[in-house]
Amino acid sequence: MSMTFAQASSVALPIVLVSPEACKDTLATLSETQAQWAAFHGFDGSLGQTLVLPGDGLAGVLIGTGTASERARKRFAIGAAIAALPDATYAIDALPQGQEEEIGLGYLLSLYRFDRYRTQSAAKARLVAPEGIDAQRLERIAAAEALARDLINTPAEDMGPDALEAAVRSLAGEFRAQVMVVEGADLLAQNFPLIHTVGRASAKAPRLIEMIWGESGPSLTLVGKGVCFDTGGLNLKPGASMGIMKKDMGGAANVLGLARMIMASGMDVQLRVLIPAVENNVAGNSFRPGDIFTARSGLTVEINNTDAEGRLVLADALALASETPPDLLICMATLTGAARVAVGPDIAPFFTDDEALAQALGRSANEVADPVWRLPFHDAYEPMIEPGIADLDNAPSGGMAGSITAALFLRRFALVPRFAHFDIYGWQRTNAPARPKGGVGQGIRALFNALPEVLTKCQK
């Protein structure tokens, strides 16, 4: 699909963005017929309200911008309203200060359609890139978001570990990156025991996928959980919980979306992407509750729930990343239901001990309307992940602080000065402006926006 702006056109219909405060004054500038038309339709500048003005054909469009509090509750609503307009080319007369990028990106993201299995009607409205925005940058971000959405939305039958590897190779080919893969029994031979353990019961071989791009600048390693389907293993999930487990590779999908943004922008960075890609299935060789395994780092892990498998595959990948410590290590995973209980589906919680990184992410999230929230690496909970019989417990009993204990588990393997872990949902439960129900990017726009500042500080 094309998620781009239209070329400048002399026949573009003007869009006038109208706030509730300015609505009366704006309507006073219209012709008598248009003003009566607006009054008849009750146009008052409410958020996302649209009104096509009559004239010699179509004269233009009014779109309400709503109040600041309305926009905060319903981000991208203006861009989505533009994308829903009738078939024509449009140009915005003037963009409200501070909303330029959100409106432009909201329009582009609203063009997304997942049409692999069913033809979807495309948006008919074409928007000329508004003045004052970096149109190409927003188009690159939209393309990266579309990649993440497509990967998550694709069912596991067509997005197993092998297909995820193919997606990485396709992305690498586009940007001349290198790809290396360790697969199947070779995982044991090359000391990735936990990745092999989780994936060994699947008919589709587990693998560690690595992509490298860039030869200069600070080093950045991205690690994404690639559990392409999660039955829960022998601790089998109930059907209601298993229904959307095609999204359990959402961490990998988001990492690849972020990698696409970075490479398409030509950022001066040495990028490394690590994706442990597995299916957590049930078979005669499934790993069991009570089993103890030795991770790549040498730490032993007791399995108290086979449905806490994401942290296991990430442990080996993070250990590998730490062997050549990058300036910044980022992990993204659809890891715990506890994170959803804590902050809900719309916010991407993250953990870091780096104050400068946390502050940069907070600012960036507000700037690009990509909500994130910092949760603590609470050291007092460390004993909760220590079972006594082994170094670590993959699923502490009791259910308390589940997202934090999972993050503490991962931190034991991320032995680098600067590390952040994102426990994302990766799924939009209902349709929202510019975010249809299904797979979604979370945290990656905030990260992309913050990276130049953060990586500069990493090298000081």
TrEMBL record:
This is Leucyl aminopeptidase family protein. Keywords: Aminopeptidase, Hydrolase, Manganese, Protease. One of its GO terms (molecular function) is manganese ion binding. The keyword S-adenosyl-L-methionine does not apply. GO terms for biological process: proteolysis. CDD domains: Peptidase_M17 (cd00433). InterPro entries: Leucine_aapep/pepB, Macro_dom-like, Peptidase_M17_C, Peptidase_M17_N_1. GO terms for cellular component: cytoplasm.
